[in-house]
MFS transporter
Amino acid sequence: MVGTSAPAGIAGAPFRFMLGATVLCFSGYALLLPVVPLWAERGGSGAFGSGATTAVLMATTVATQLAVPWLLVRIGHRWVLAAGSVLLGAPTPFLALSADLAPVLALSALRGVGFGLATVAGSALVAELVPREQHGRAAGRYGLAVGVPQLVLLAAGVAVVDRFGFTAVFVVAGAGPVLGALLVPGIRMSGATVPTTAGPPPRPPVRSALTPVLAMLTCSISQGGLITFLPLAVPDAGLLVPGALLGTAAGSLLGRLVAGELVDRRGWGGRLLVPGMLLTAAGLMAEVVSLGAGAGALVVIGAVAVGFGFGMVQNDSLTVLFAAFGSGGYGAASAVWNIAYDAGTGVGALGLGAVAEPFGYSAAFGAAAVLLGVGVVVARARPGAATGRP
């Protein structure tokens, strides 16, 4: 690394501008995550086709994320974040032109490119803009910027569609990320965060990344399936589904904040992965029981548990990966983390949709819980997995 100036830290203006851009970017993402599958269903798609909209979004997101560490070195974090925000938002209003599956999938793919750019650049900036001893709390605040839009808008999207229609939602969801791009010039990076070479970042030991990536994948599959299919599994339930979506977003937000404090102040980095996976599995089983009993308050309780468990895993896994890759590889660590997150979301939407089509939504949620259980067994079977330390 070159330069003598230190990162400004979590109280600095660059970090705050990054958080503001993140809030606006994720507003456009969160608002549509449960809405686009409903739009595709209106166009005649079944559960599999509706789930494919999220799967395609995540597939192009992941494909893009593979190239982002290279782009970060060559054109810089700010340009990548701004370009991603515009690509995520600008195509969104065109969804209103047709509910047929083909154009919806095409626009979802384009938005996925933007989301892939923005997510890797944003989470890499978490490490680049603050000193290492603040990584846990910085990741928690980044989780706040990611979680607040989901806390409000995952539930609001379905409710606003019922009140104002799909077109209004598409226009608002498109405006947020584009406005976020206007904040990017305020993210001024210190000389200490500029890489000295354009070569590839150092490669961490594979074993250091296995447990956090496994935890992210299994939890993301679970939450991705829950968010995509809960509105379809509990139709005409009044405020129950918006309440559950609000609950999973709130749980995720709280889980990330709690984990950030425990990582920085208690030194528990890596120790929260397995507990987070177990809590996520318990939440899914609560959903299975609730659907079998005709839904009810347990739908909300289970969603909160899924969100809190996944929130713990999100924060802890990100800090573990930053440590494993080192200061020269924050972009690569961010890409690995985001790929695990978004690939899991896509697999959850498509794979659990394939289970739900013939067997029902209870079977889909139960399959995700079993997958988490297998993940816990594999993680604990690895040497050192009990603490999750690299």
